[in-house]
């Protein structure tokens, strides 16, 4: 337990400072409201007006990114299999084929549902 | 001889004895849940289920006869509610219960058939048959149960059916009141029975007949007496015995088939069944037995006296029912020597009293629902079949030689005489009064001059009503002799209730028998001179104080009112006061407290996912903290 | 690393029920990819129902013909033991029933991507578009539910948890009406679910740090032998507990339940309230008894507190609810508390453990059927805006539709635990086990909470039967055959389990007798 005492002390100090500074602010600071302060924070730019209902924004890039991750993970699984290929033998081959087929099914779904079309 | 052992049984008609209960129950469920869709065939369904139940009963009876007498107590395991606890439910088919089953389903079916005609023009006919079916099912459960809990369920079931049927014509305030009265008075009895059952469980740690009865002798005299008296309270409520008799007369507000089925033939005999079934307990507690006999004799006299003064044909018959059940209770209180006579009289009474009631219903049907006998007279020509069957029922009930009542009632009187001379002579006196009031009833209705109201056109009832009458009167003629001569019924019943040490001999010319007959004859002749030969005034004369006493049901209602109702009302007011101020305060406060804290806690549910996440985080911190505290203890 | 990897062995026959469900789900995705739109539902419904029925048959066959295995399968990763088989059977039947409900009416959105109230939505509705993906999604979720209670190591449990949860997050957002509420529910469920999964995973990591293994059995042995690392153990176990307790909706992790149950399409709510609860309880019991069994002196008092809090919060908060689905959600929280009583009701004796476990198993079956039935009734009471959730709209339902109101009243009585309903025996079995396990105070709290809960169940009954119906009250849609079958089955199960529970009690008992394999 002794080992942790300094960390604990640091944690308490840090937490204390954070709580103190947030807690003291309403009492010490001046309160002046203006439009800019109440606006949504968008990196300092004027927020663009949104259509009613929030509007839609394109997900094209996100879909691509998600597909990338799926295949990325497939690769990650393929890699250790490649390393231990001969030791796992037929069992490894069958399981890996099953895995790839499963990913392929998802790929087929994306393809048929036009997830790969950019427009 | 002791009762036979209980034998576990399966297979055959006895194995499916539950069908007897299930069939009418299904009928009732279909009719009640089916709504108006079942209006067209409702009555037929009711009749068919009752008849099917009767068929099962007959088959079970035949199968039972196939066993040796010592093996005729067949228990069927049905259902185990909570394994390992005293909640096993089963049925017990033995000579006692099968006798009841045959009576309930047999007479019940006839009354179902009769009701097709009687209720033909009633808009609630379907509902009526549903209730009748419900009653049959509950009554069969009552007699077939192999333990006190199921018996109690059936007991309450018949109480419910009786309530629904007495108040069947709810639009009449008198019917609604009568139904309520029957329910409340029965509640007193049920309460006694319930405490009795509790006491049985506390004493024997079981409620199964098969476990309680063999152990009965082991319990202390005081406990057994208490159990016996509590069971008697229950029996008094259901069987309209003093002091819980007051509801039965009012119960005549229900449709006449109901009076015949429930308030004459079957339900009101449940008390007798209970006493006979629990015979082992009563035999071990002499005091309880003594009280039973006293209650029986007092009721048989009270009922008879009430019967002499009523002008309402159904109420006069109701008084008679009280009186006859008094005989049965008397016999049931005597012990094994009386059991067979009690049940035999119960069965024959079921037939002739149903016959009389249905006959009275037929008369009322013909006379525009008039019940006042002073407005009848000379109906024997207008309604020959009803008259003939009614006459048979009448002769049977007064104990005319060789008819059913002669054998069974005389048996009770003889047994009572042997048991205790005072009880015996009082029973004889009761028989004499019976002779008087029944003759009065017959003479006022069927003989003398026409005293009909202007628009009455009496006519014979349709065949669907007369045939049940004919069948019932056949039973009223032959059944008694068949059961009693040669102790046939006593022997049959013995596996269930035991046998007395000396079998009684049937003696047609005993002193008691002759005196009884003479008294009955005197009563009948007296009635002839007052009501048959003489003019019957249209309005009842004031009469002596004794007549007033009888007309007011021996002041039973006044007594109840003074002793229970008024103090009860005060108690209620007091209770309401305290309930409002004290208990409601606590309850409402509690409810408000929970509701209030609920309302406050509800605010935690802000709908913001961030605060939910925070609560999870805090919860996790608490969990970790708690674990540390507990782990380092 | 000395390179001695051995090819693992997998008992495919043992895992067949799960494989069937997952396989059908993958086939379902292919159907989505290649079948023309008008054929999809026609293929999905029989495929889904058949695969669930087939998996159920395989489960029964496994238990009946092959006997209950005494060793964990798949190199110790999946334990197909008595309780697991019982839970599988339960989940598969409940899922089957829920699928009948799903196909029953139009519960699902036409185009999930269309903004609520927009022109696209109009158009999608007009075209009659439908997301037939719900069937494979449900199958994936059910597959996860099967794996979760059988998972014998923490990583498999985590994977199962995610496989079960992710499709549910999606399904929650697919309601046809009140779409914003539904989408809000989905986002909330997803965020909080992810949050709690993180706790689970963190706990797993800490326990691995403590025991050097994620295998439940190995953790169990380490609890007795490894010294000086109690901090890791305690924090790890508590974190793991947070993840599991979140899934069953125990207080103080219950906040998501009312919002999600309310927003999700009602058939999905039915699936979550029955199947997910069963699966999560199976996993909770396994982790706490098998993995942390040696630590029970520590977790029992903690769970004691959680159980009390859960029962009280569920029962008390339900009182002021005015929305039928939220009320049922709180009721589900309270029932989770009652079930936790059973988890605590363990002792050292195997017989005591078996009786507590069989009580839990029976309770899960009883509650699962009743709750599916209750939600099925909710789908049938509708007005112009879809299902009528507000309780005031249910006033006088007994006069309008006595049969439906009667059935719902019956379900409520079963929730309240009135004798002759299945709920009575569920509570009885669990509480009895708790009493003999020495947790009498807990049982007293449970009984009081039941009484409080009975108040709001009965209040709904009173509302339905003794209030005057609203003039423009909701109408009762004529149920499709599927919905009617669900309600009928639920009534039947509730009656039979309440009147003649012996066969199921015996089954639960024999399943519990073998306890968990290690």
Automatic annotation (TrEMBL), chain A:
It is an enzyme of class 7 (translocase). Gene3D superfamilies: NADH:ubiquinone/plastoquinone oxidoreductase, chain 3 (1.20.58.1610). The chain crosses the membrane at residues 6-27, 61-82, 88-110. Its EC number is 7.1.1.-. Coiled coil: none annotated. It is found in: Cell membrane; Membrane. GO terms for cellular component: NADH dehydrogenase complex; plasma membrane. InterPro entries: NAD(P)H_OxRDtase_bac/plastid (IPR023043), NADH_UbQ/plastoQ_OxRdtase_su3 (IPR000440), NDAH_ubi_oxred_su3_sf (IPR038430). Pfam families: Oxidored_q4 (PF00507). One of its GO terms (molecular function) is NADH dehydrogenase (ubiquinone) activity. Its main location: membrane. Keywords: Cell membrane, Membrane, NAD, Oxidoreductase, Quinone, Translocase, Transmembrane, Transmembrane helix, Transport. The keyword NAD applies. It is a multi-pass membrane protein. The keyword Nucleus does not apply. It catalyses: a quinone + NADH + 5 H(+)(in) = a quinol + NAD(+) + 4 H(+)(out). Signal peptide: none annotated. It comes from the Bacteria. NDH-1 is composed of 14 different subunits. Subunits NuoA, H, J, K, L, M, N constitute the membrane sector of the complex. NDH-1 shuttles electrons from NADH, via FMN and iron-sulfur (Fe-S) centers, to quinones in the respiratory chain. The immediate electron acceptor for the enzyme in this species is believed to be a menaquinone. Couples the redox reaction to proton translocation (for every two electrons transferred, four hydrogen ions are translocated across the cytoplasmic membrane), and thus conserves the redox energy in a proton gradient. PANTHER family: NADH-QUINONE OXIDOREDUCTASE SUBUNIT A (PTHR11058:SF22), NADH-UBIQUINONE OXIDOREDUCTASE CHAIN 3 (PTHR11058). Belongs to the complex I subunit 3 family. This is NADH-quinone oxidoreductase subunit A.
């Amino acid at each position: 337990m002794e080992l942790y005492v300094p960390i604990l002390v640091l944690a308490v100090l840090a937490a204390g400072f954070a709580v103190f500074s947030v807690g003291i602010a309403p009492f010490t600071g001046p309160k002046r409201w203006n439009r800019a302060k109440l606006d949504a924070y968008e990196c300092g730019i004027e927020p663009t007006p949104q259509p009613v209902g929030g509007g839609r924004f394109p997900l094209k890039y996100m879909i691509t990114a998600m597909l990338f991750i799926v295949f990325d993970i497939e690769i990650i699984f393929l890699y250790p299999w490649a390393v231990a290929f001969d030791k796992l033998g037929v069992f490894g081959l069958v399981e890996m084929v099953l895995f790839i087929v499963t990913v392929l099914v998802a790929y087929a779904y994306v393809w048929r549902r036009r997830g790969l079309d950019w427009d | 001889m002791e009762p036979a052992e209980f034998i576990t049984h399966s297979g055959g008609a006895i194995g499916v004895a539950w069908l007897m209960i299930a069939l009418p129950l299904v009928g009732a469920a279909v009719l009640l849940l089916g709504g108006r869709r079942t209006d067209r065939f409702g009555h037929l369904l009711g009749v068919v289920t009752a008849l099917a139940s009767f068929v099962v009963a007959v088959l079970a009876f035949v199968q039972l006869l196939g066993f040796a007498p010592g093996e005729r107590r067949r228990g069927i395991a049905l259902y185990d509610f909570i394994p390992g606890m005293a909640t096993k439910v089963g049925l017990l088919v033995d000579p006692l219960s099968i006798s009841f089953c045959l009576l309930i389903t047999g007479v019940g079916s006839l009354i179902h058939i009769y009701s097709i005609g009687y209720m033909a023009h009633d808009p609630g006919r379907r509902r009526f048959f549903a209730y009748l079916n419900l009653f049959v099912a509950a009554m069969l459960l009552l007699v077939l149960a192999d333990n006190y809990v199921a018996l109690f369920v059936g007991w309450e079931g018949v109480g419910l059916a009786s309530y629904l049927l007495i108040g069947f014509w709810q639009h009449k305030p008198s019917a609604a009141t009568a139904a309520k009265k029957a329910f409340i008075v029965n509640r007193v009895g049920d309460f006694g029975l319930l405490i009795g059952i509790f006491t049985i469980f506390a004493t024997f740690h079981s409620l199964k007949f098969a476990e309680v009865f063999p152990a009965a002798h082991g319990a202390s005299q005081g406990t057994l007496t208490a159990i016996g008296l509590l069971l008697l309270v229950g029996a008094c409520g259901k069987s309209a015995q003093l002091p819980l008799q007051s509801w039965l007369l009012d119960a005549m507000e229900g449709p006449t088939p109901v009076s015949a089925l429930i308030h004459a033939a079957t339900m009101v005999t449940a008390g007798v069944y209970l006493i006979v079934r629990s015979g082992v307990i009563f035999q071990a507690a002499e005091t309880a037995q003594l009280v039973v006999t006293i209650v029986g004799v007092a009721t048989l006299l009270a009922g008879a006296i009430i019967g002499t003064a009523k002008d309402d044909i159904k109420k006069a018959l109701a008084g008679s029912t009280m009186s006859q059940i008094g005989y049965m209770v008397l016999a049931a209180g005597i012990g094994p020597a009386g059991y067979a006579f009690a049940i035999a009289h119960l069965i024959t009474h079921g037939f002739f009293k149903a016959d009389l009631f249905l006959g009275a219903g037929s008369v009322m049907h013909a006379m525009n629902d008039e019940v006042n006998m002073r407005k009848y007279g000379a109906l024997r020509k207008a309604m020959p079949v009803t008259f003939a069957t009614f006459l048979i029922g009448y002769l049977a009930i007064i104990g005319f030689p060789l008819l059913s009542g002669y054998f069974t009632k005389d048996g009770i009187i003889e047994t009572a005489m042997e048991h205790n001379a005072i009880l015996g002579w009082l029973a004889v006196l009761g028989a004499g009064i019976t002779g008087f009031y029944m003759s009065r009833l017959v003479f006022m209705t069927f003989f003398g001059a026409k005293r009909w109201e202007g628009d009455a056109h009496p006519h014979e009832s349709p065949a669907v009503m007369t045939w049940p009458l004919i069948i019932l009167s056949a039973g009223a003629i032959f059944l008694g002799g068949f059961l009693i001569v040669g102790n046939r019924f006593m022997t049959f019943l013995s596996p269930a209730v035991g046998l007395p040490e000396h079998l009684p001999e049937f003696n047609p010319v005993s002193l008691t028998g002759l005196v009884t007959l003479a008294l009955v004859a005197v009563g009948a002749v007296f009635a002839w001179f007052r009501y048959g030969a003489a003019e019957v005034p249209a309005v009842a004369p004031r009469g002596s104080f004794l007549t007033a006493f009888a007309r007011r049901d021996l002041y039973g209602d006044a007594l109840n009112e003074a002793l229970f109702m008024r103090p009860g009302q005060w108690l209620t007011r007091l209770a309401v006061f305290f309930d409002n101020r004290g208990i409601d305060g606590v309850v409402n406060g509690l409810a408000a407290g929970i509701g209030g804290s609920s309302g406050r806690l509800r605010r935690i549910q802000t709908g913001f996912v961030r605060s939910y996440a925070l609560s999870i985080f805090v919860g996790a911190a608490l969990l970790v903290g708690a674990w540390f505290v507990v782990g380092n203890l | 690393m000395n390179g001695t990897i051995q090819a693992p062995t997998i008992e495919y026959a043992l895992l067949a029920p799960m494989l069937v469900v997952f396989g059908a789900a993958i086939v379902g995705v292919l159907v989505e990819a290649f079948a023309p739109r008008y054929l999809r539902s026609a293929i999905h419904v029989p495929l889904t129902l058949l695969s669930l029925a087939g998996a159920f048959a395989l489960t029964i066959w496994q238990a009946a013909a092959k006997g209950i295995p005494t060793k964990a399968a798949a190199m110790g990763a999946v334990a197909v033991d008595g309780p697991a088989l019982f839970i599988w059977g339960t989940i598969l039947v409940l899922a089957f029933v829920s699928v009948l409900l799903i196909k029953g009416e139009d519960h699902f959105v036409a185009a999930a991507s269309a903004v609520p109230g927009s022109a696209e939505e109009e158009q999608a509705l007009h075209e009659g578009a439908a997301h037939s993906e719900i069937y494979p999604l449900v199958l994936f979720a059910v597959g996860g539910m099967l794996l979760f209670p059988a998972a014998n190591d923490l990583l498999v449990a985590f994977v199962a948890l995610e496989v079960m949860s992710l499709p549910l997050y999606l399904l929650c957002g697919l309601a046809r009406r009140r779409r914003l509420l539904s989408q809000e529910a989905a986002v909330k469920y997803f965020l909080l679910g992810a949050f709690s999964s993180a706790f689970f995973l963190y706990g797993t990591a800490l326990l691995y740090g403590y025991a050097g293994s994620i295998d439940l059995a190995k953790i169990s042995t380490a609890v007795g032998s490894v010294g000086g690392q109690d901090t890791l153990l305690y924090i790890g176990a508590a974190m793991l507990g947070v993840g599991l307790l979140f899934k069953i909706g125990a207080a103080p992790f219950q906040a998501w339940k009312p919002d999600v149950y309310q927003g999700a399409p009602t058939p999905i709510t039915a699936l979550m309230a029955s199947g997910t609860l069963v699966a999560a309880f199976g996993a909770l019991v396994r982790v706490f008894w098998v993995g942390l069994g040696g630590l029970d002196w520590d977790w029992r008092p903690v769970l004691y507190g959680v159980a009390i809090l859960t029962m009280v919060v569920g029962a008390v908060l339900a009182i002021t609810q005015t929305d039928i689905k939220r009320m049922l959600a709180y009721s589900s929280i309270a029932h989770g508390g009652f079930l936790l009583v059973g988890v605590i009701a363990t002792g050292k004796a195997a017989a005591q453990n078996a009786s507590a476990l069989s009580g839990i198993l029976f309770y899960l079956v009883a509650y699962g059927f009743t709750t599916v039935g209750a939600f099925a009734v909710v789908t049938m009471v509708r007005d112009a805006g879809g299902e009528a959730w507000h309780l005031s709209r249910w006033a006088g339902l007994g006069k309008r539709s006595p049969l439906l109101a009667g059935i719902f009243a019956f379900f409520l009585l079963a929730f309240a635990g009135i004798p002759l309903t299945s709920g009575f025996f569920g509570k009885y079995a669990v509480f009895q086990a708790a009493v003999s396990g020495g947790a009498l105070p807990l049982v007293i709290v449970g009984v009081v909470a039941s009484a409080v809960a009975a108040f709001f169940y009965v209040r709904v009954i009173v509302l339905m039967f003794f209030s005057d119906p609203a003039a423009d009250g909701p109408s009762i849609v004529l149920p499709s055959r599927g919905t009617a079958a669900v309600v009928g089955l639920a009534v039947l199960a509730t009656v039979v389990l309440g009147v003649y529970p012996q066969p199921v009690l015996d089954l639960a008992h024999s399943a519990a007798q073998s306890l968990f394999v290690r």
